[in-house]
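Fold this complex.
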Amino acid sequence: MRIEVISSVNEARADRFTHRTAIVIDVLRATSTMVTALGAGAASIYPVETVLEARTLQRQGYTLAGERFCRKIPGFELGNSPEDFTPEIVEGRRLVLTTTNGTRAIHKAMRADFVLSAALLNASACARSAMELRRDVVLLCAGCHDDFALEDGLCAGMIIDRMQALSSTSIDVDDFGTAMQGFYQSSKERITEILKGSSSGKRLIKMGFSRDIDSCAQIDTSSIVPKLQGDMIIIG
Amino acid sequence: MRIEVISSVNEARADRFTHRTAIVIDVLRATSTMVTALGAGAASIYPVETVLEARTLQRQGYTLAGERFCRKIPGFELGNSPEDFTPEIVEGRRLVLTTTNGTRAIHKAMRADFVLSAALLNASACARSAMELRRDVVLLCAGCHDDFALEDGLCAGMIIDRMQALSSTSIDVDDFGTAMQGFYQSSKERITEILKGSSSGKRLIKMGFSRDIDSCAQIDTSSIVPKLQGDMIIIG
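Structure:
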């Protein structure tokens, strides 16, 4: 088994996903929100790239969620803060989610045999699922705008670490993945601090979303692995 | 002071270097070779991008060195193995060097106020020079073909670690640099092993250059900081 890591959505070419399991990572906040929303009982999440697409789906009974520049989109019921996705609000509902990088990353990965969503919240569960699917794995760090995001690299490193612990045979990890695993190993005792010091973390704190960082920094609190089925993300 | 790290030469846009100190890193092997060649008494190194350019310079009395696909170029006196660059062969001579990624990276960085070359061999010396130059710093990892190379990331992480230790004020490091510093911190006790397990390392071993890895894995054995002056690299 081989694991490769793509440093940001801009680096992702569709052909790198063929015959693989793709794991999309956007810790702050899209994939953390997906895990939380499905955990709170949302029926499904439809990831779309544009606000216009989302608005078109509203008439079909979808609940709209998402952000642009960290903020809730005008006319949308929900933003991209995991804590907004409570059972009272989302249970049984079909959501549409559009975010700057996270939903774009899901679309980029669609050529893969399987597309999973990972955050720190479900990293170990996601590592287990990926092992069970028995394909080579591509971890796609969504990143922030056009750049690598520290928290996504940290999560990629953690998933690789978990997969190696679960595997009885040796796993071949590419150079970028090896670096991320090393980074995770040196940082695992101070996850929240790392998230707060990252570019995305600093931006969220500035905009008043520091509670989101605390929720997204929790490790393995969920066993839910969001998985793409057709166009929809459901519990895998 | 701010430090940014570019993951491979393909990611380098010229405008990121303006008003900065650029540190070009190609541990296996171009920048290790530069440090070794200048340490052995070479008068200067002229980094050129093409074999044709190098051949044109031969008539002007330059000694040609370089590689394509890890191997010495036909008609060149020297390859890209640091140990070929002994005082007997290079003392007082003006060299031309052309390599797949390393010399390309030097050219990409030319818009910077200062361009230094770093390897593990001179990482601390290079960190000190960069501090003295009092500019923001961009570390350019040359990488391997179009990708990130583990050994270049490791060296970038080490230089950041050294610069932070030397600085009395706090240094602002970008997300990629922070990840590389963490990777270095978790790997510093097994540098040679990391280099041998990297993609470039495995390729060099396969082609019979494993002694080069041992020479390039030495830490801080040189105080020489190769520096670009006009078109030439000399001792800074």
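Chain B is about 40% helix and 20% strand.
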